[in-house]
Amino acid sequence: MTIGLSHYLILSAILFSVGLAGVLRRKNLLMLFFATEIMLNAANIAFAAISVHIGDLSGQMFALFIIAIAASEVAVGLGLLILIYKKYGTLDLDNLSIMKG
Amino acid sequence: MEAIAFYTFSILITGLFLVTVFSRNILYAMSSLAAGMVLISGLFFIMRADFLGAVQLVVYSGAIMALYAFGMMFFDATRDVKEKNSSASSVFLLSGISAVILVAIFAAPAIGEHIKPLVTAAKGLDNTQAIGEILFTKYLIPFEVAAVMLLVAMVAGIVLASKKMDQSLSEIYQDADPENELKEQK
């Protein structure tokens, strides 16, 4: 049994839905970051699989740039998280909601 | 052989990421996420995208997870995360439906027949050589922009994280209950 494009796309869909469920379910900001990393990785798998299947290297290029963007997102996001934690002492979204609406 | 490796990797990755999403402990979530990243690089090696697998191993499981592990020093990572969860079933329904729709939208043109590769490598090059050749010709400007963006992110990270670096968090919150303090600020 050979592994084709559809196997990778189905795996990517499963991982993406796991990450999306995490984004919708989690209330802790750090856990939300983890869930977005999962979604980015699922997109990377789909990009690489389609790129290898078609024989076009653009998909792997896009996956490389996604990894670079994820690295910078983590650097800035962790700085912001540290600031929020220093200011409020919590990362929970229910405690952080200070708007009266 | 390829099928065995693929199924082993994909089952392990899905299980580890489920632990990440549903675990109550931040440390467990972070370590299972790191292990999942390492196994995803295995998937890239199976599909013969060697350079991408190496980059995934170095950048994701090396740099990004190490950054999370360092950031974890600022937070109280041993305490369990308490979360109010309402309507779990609707969350699963929504995420499942939207993921299926997204994958159908993005996979439809790729599975179609009339699609031609635009960026192909010269014959006889292996994956890393071909990626290097294309990265420094066709994708040179995005590469430079990504380098500038990483520099900006590094400066921003240093500036954001170094505010009040001389004060210890445990001294700030030694006797003040954080939730009470938040209520006072409200």
Provide a descriptive summary of the structure in words.
The complex is a heterodimer of chains A (101) and B (186). Chain A is an all-alpha fold. Helix content of chain A is 81%, strand content 0%. Chain A is elongated and about 55 Å long. The mean pLDDT of chain A is 86. In chain B, helix 1 runs antiparallel to helix 2 and helix 2 runs antiparallel to helix 3. The N and C termini of chain B lie far apart (60 Å). Classes of the chains: A mainly alpha (101), B mainly alpha (186).
Low-confidence stretches of chain A: none
CATH architecture of chain A: Orthogonal Bundle
Shape of chain A: elongated
Helix content of chain A: over 70%
Text of the CATH class of chain A:
Mainly Alpha
In terms of DSSP E residues, the strand content of chain A is under 5%
User: What is the SS-derived class of chain B?
Assistant: mainly alpha
Oligomer type = heterodimer
Main sheet makeup of chain B: none
Please summarize what this structure is.
Chain A is mainly α. Chain A has four helices and no strands. Chain A is elongated, with a radius of gyration of 17 Å.
Features:
heterodimer; A: 101 residues; mainly alpha; Helix Hairpins; 4 helices; B: 186 residues; 8 helices
Q: What's the topology here?
A:
The complex is a heterodimer of chains A (101) and B (186).
Chain A (H helix, E strand, L loop, with lengths): L4 H21 L3 H26 L3 H31 L4 H4 L5
Chain B lengths: L1 H21 L3 H21 L3 H22 L16 H24 L15 H9 L4 H22 L7 H4 L5 H8 L1
Helix pairs in contact in B: 1-2, 2-3
